[in-house]
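In this supplementary section we document a worked example of the pipeline. Step one takes a protein sequence of length 935 as its only input; no multiple sequence alignment statistics are reported here. Step two produces a three-dimensional model, which step three serialises into structure tokens for compact storage. The input and output of this example are shown verbatim.
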Amino acid sequence: MPNLLRRTVLCATVAATLVAAPLVPVSTAVADPAGTGLVIAEAYLKGGSANQPFTNKFVEIANPTDTAVAVDGWSIQYRAAANTGTPSVGKLAGTVPAHGSYLVQMGSNGTNGQALPTPDAVTGLNPSGSTGTLVLSDQATALTLPVGSVTTGTPGVVDLLGYGTSNTFETAVAPTGTANSVPDALHRDGTVDTDSNAADFALGSTVTPENSGGAGTTPTDPGTPTDPGTPTTPAEAVTIAELQGTGPASPYVGKRVVTEGVVTAVYATGGLNGYTIQTAGTGGAVDLATHTASDAVFVFSAATAGSVAIGDAVRLTGTVAEYNGLTELEVGSTADVEELPAAGVVQPVPATLTLPRTDAQRESLESMLIAPQGDYTVADNYTTNQYGEIALAAGTKRLIQPTEVARPGSAEAAEVAADNAARTVVLDDGASTNFLSAANQSVPVSWLTQGPVTVGAAATFSEPVVLDYRNDTWKFQPTSPITGATPAADLPASFSQVRTAAPENVGGDLKLAGFNVLNYFPTTGDQLTGCTYYTDRDGDPVTVRGGCDARGAANADDLERQQVKIVKAINALGADVVSLEEIENSARFGKDRDAAVGTLVSALNAATGQDTWAYVPSPAVLPASEDVIRLALIYKQDRVAPVGESTILDDPAFANARQPVADAFRPVGGDADDDFLVIANHFKSKGSGSGADADQGDGQGASNASRVAQATALAAFSTTEQEKYGTDRVFMLGDFNAYSEEDPMVVLRDAGYTDLGPAKDPTEYSYVFSGLSGSLDHVLASPAALEAVTGVDIWNINSTESVGLEYSRYDYNVTDLYRDDVYRASDHDPILVGFDLAEDETPTPGDGGTPGNGGTPGGPGHGGDHPGKPGHGGDHPGKPGHGGDHPGKPGHGDGKPGKPGHGDGKPGGPGHGGFVADVVRVVLGVFGWLRGLFG
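The serialised model returned by step three reads:
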């Protein structure tokens, strides 16, 4: 199956990048007319095609020096003609003898020709015969290549060959390759390197592979016809079904055939460089039990794609090939296309069926017109902003991470994986366009320009599509290329609106939530030295890439775009306590540790127009070593207040993660019986690990052992904190970097905690990775906390949205996808939990005027005082004896929980109802305090 950028210009298949490493110094990408370094001497790129002398393609490296050159750790690399990403890599080893050659064997187009001499290296690279870029590199990892002429000193480049219409070359490209049936190769003129591919290379009909031992092969009969366009044997007439065969590959690979069909789709632009034809009169109600061979085929022909139209009846002559799993008919010129009379031709119609669940069934429909039946659900949009493709799941449910619902390595997990594979298909845009490349950033991105495409949305098809196979994936292609400029009414599919402006009502007297703030760093990159950046299409920095400790926005403008989304999302949650993950640890920049969380709280309050939010200050005792990101707790001051100082778990298990932070909260108007403990978490990620932390291949990713140790330490920490704060109502929440059935979550489950997402909201998930939905973010409740839970909602505003909506993807394409709303404020979704207090202990903020405005600071507390908020009756947590308060327990002068209780009944007044009233309040306050002390 071709990859997305497979032949973006003419025949741009995946070309091999050549790389070799010498024992003597070698100049990088520099003209070398004196012949003092290794060079690419010959590139044969048509192996296995009809009339070709050798089965495999090859690159020959020449050493013009007097010293053998070692190429251990070197590579040959290939990048397709229009690609701007990293090349494919073929590793090398051994030496290139002095004044000798080194033969690198690559892929094949078929079975024609004889074997090469014993190669010095064998790679899986399969470069295009007509256009692409090959690189000889002195490193084994993929290079970062520029677009245009490669200049002297480009890191890793020893020699480079750009040919055809490639976007990367030395000074000027070498000639475009001829048809695959014409035997020839690109030859260097000796070993001279003038740093111009056009000057140094020419097409030659002699193909002369030579290995390091000096062995070469002269084909006994290259089969070169006197007229390259005329095959030596006549083409065999076959039907398309015969051409396709009943297996995964055509029985006619490498053979020249003639067949007839009707054009059903045309891709003259966009990089696919071809069209599909289907046997007249086929399609409709297809019975897969008897329909075993496809009636359609993709025609790869840049030369003729512009000369045909949908509905044309044609007779084609060409060579059958398999390209990464896709059967193709390669047609070299318009002379091989004969238009047939339209009269009497019965046009094919779309096959009406649901997505087949097996590859064999899909193979029998390859390249045919399809009218998809049944339900389809958007499963992934991660690459939509780059390649204009959308992963779909057949049915009404998303694709699920197996370890979200089944134990790792279990038969049940395997069943989920198999079901995912059986339900997956990708809706493409009929092109291989990379909308983020410099060449295509001015082209509006497909699908997203026309409107949001959200994971979980229903996809409805209004036009037929072609069932295609590219990039090792089955795809639905529109019948012509689309872009963001295509009117929405002309698209083959539309998507339902599943966004919500607010989370579901979870009920409860109080609510808490976890929110990953996506590396929120008020310390922007431009405030530091050494930072490197990701840049937009104008070259302006948008977010830090590396080189410094900052991880977030590049400058103040970028931070503002990030912050407005986060602020709107947190304020819209309706939560009273929020744990924050991935927020800057400002101490790493010589600032107060709480500076970043203070900046966010100020922004939240500016948006509400009042001092709604406060943060829990860092404790006096801090770990000796911390990450550059940390955890934090924020809360609404008129709803709850922290009980005492927070605690950070300083345990060796968290040496490679963020240390949990805990604090207990008490609702305004509540008492100790209403206290609840909140512990924020951010476990080690899945992306890296070695030794015991190496990926075990069971679906849990790397560093699972660390996460298990962290879960074990967290359970013990929770027990300690419950004793410290005197409550068994515990909520442990945050980013655990583990799906719901993975080992760390089982550890916590076995410790007696309930994972509220799967238990209360099992149809929603907090994260999407590789098209699979699952929850890395959790809220776990102790048994006592579980009894009070009234509802749970995973608010899908982040993971389900395209990454192109993020603040840091601003201005990458001519379509500006950024909006100052809540969608894609982060990559993880927030989780909201509602829970009840004890009976009649519901806080009522703001009832009766200014809450807690109860007289002279330090005097008796009047009902409605806010624990933890200075200046309200002089009370603060931990200072008993003011108005009957004890730590965290406000004095209720009138005995009514949550009611401000101003003595004169006048909202906002000082609350002095005369001397007698004052005495009564003092007595009641003392009584309340004593009751709090002694029960």
